Amino acid sequence: MPWPPPSPRIRELIRRGAEIALTPSPDWLAELDAATLSGEARRQIAADPVLAAGTRRTNRSNLLFWAASNVRAPGEPVPANDTEAPLAVARDIVRRGLDESALDAYRVGESVAARWWTQIACTLTDDPEELRALLDVSLRSIAAFVDDTVGAISARMRVERDELTRGTHAERRETVALLLEGAPITPQRAEARLGYPLRPEHTAAIVWTEAPDADPGQLDRAADALAEAAGGLRPLSVIAGAATRWLWVHGRPDADRARAALDPLPDVRVALGSTAPGVDGFRRSHLDALTTQQVLTRLTSPSRLAFHHEVELVALLTTDPERADRFVARTLGALQTAPPELAETLRVFLEEQCNATRAAARLFTHRNTLLRRLARADRLLPRPLAQHPVEVGAALRVLQWRGHP
């Protein structure tokens, strides 16, 4: 053992503490997730819903792995956690083009876990010597466990990186990366390597799932369905991770057909970019699709499909989530927490350029019912709608994509 074997009494205290750690409180887990997904070094992980979800799963996996090991064999070294959760994250990190610096999240998680464990330890004994011995062994164990786990994941990342540099998929991904980075590759050369024409109009999409046990085939079926909704021409698909596909289709997918195609694929989500021609359109549409995905993630939106033009304003408004929250609360007042049909009625009324007849038809309701709801909504606003309709409309759009009508 890399530390002196603990006494039977200390072993028993570690076992009791580990049993407590096996059932972490929601507040502890929320703090762990927030810490491992914050900071500039982890910005790219936090902005990617698949990587963020994988990090949260890995946090729980590491915590339970260490605790369970110390219930079985308290105070003994814990082997590296090479289970599926951390290895899946390693694969996705490599496929996003990130390096081992992304594993800094594990070090942040270690510091949070060590603080929790210290709090648990202080509830197990009042004897200062017992507490000292307990913390000496267990904190060494936590540090060694994290070191070994990071080492195992780094090794997996090296293997994954080697695999990605071989074969036709590697060539396709490399070509896409060159196009997205604006590197000097001719359209003709890129088209030959991709088997995908770049001159026509195309729409990029991010197709992903956050469900840990989802069938990867659902992502491929969703990609095919988007191509069908855009006219049926062959799409360009790149595996960006075990749970993510980057997609380009010619034309713009029909929204109703695309949403219908997602109905039998409940674990799949889709973010679409703008529609534009040529290499510049290829690049811009992908960046817009990433923005759309980030909006859905930032607002924890339940929407499973969104186009960039639907959320572009919301993306600008919610770059700073705290300021966006204040703007919505200040603008909508009591309407924010009123029955959802009031906000929906007012939003549709504004979208229909304040035409009550068109708004009532769109909502499948009687015009008089719509007018009563509008009057009630106006009374709930801090200022009358007529004084600031643009601000109210913008706040309602944010509310809509947060999962409210």
Helical amount: 55-70%
Q: In total, how many domains does the architecture comprise?
A: 3
Secondary-structure-based class equals alpha+beta
CATH topology of the largest domain, by name, is: Globin-like
* Widest sheet: strand ordering: 2-3-1-4-5
What does this structure look like?
- By secondary structure, the protein is of the alpha+beta class.
- The protein folds into three domains: 8-164, Orthogonal Bundle (Globin-like); 196-312, Alpha-Beta Plaits, CATH 3.30.70; 321-401, Orthogonal Bundle (Arc Repressor Mutant, subunit A), CATH 1.10.10.2840.
- Helix content is 63%, strand content 8%.
- The protein is built from 18 helices and five strands.
- It has a five-stranded mixed β-sheet.
- Strand 2 and strand 3 (244-250) form a beta hairpin.
- The longest helix has 37 residues, at 128-164.
- The chain is flat and about 80 Å long.
- 38% of the residues are buried.
- The model has no long low-confidence stretch (mean pLDDT 89).
- Residues 189-295 form the CdaR GGDEF-like domain.
- This is PucR family transcriptional regulator.
- Belongs to the CdaR family.
- It holds the Pfam family GGDEF_2.
- Residues 342-397 form the PucR C-terminal helix-turn-helix domain.
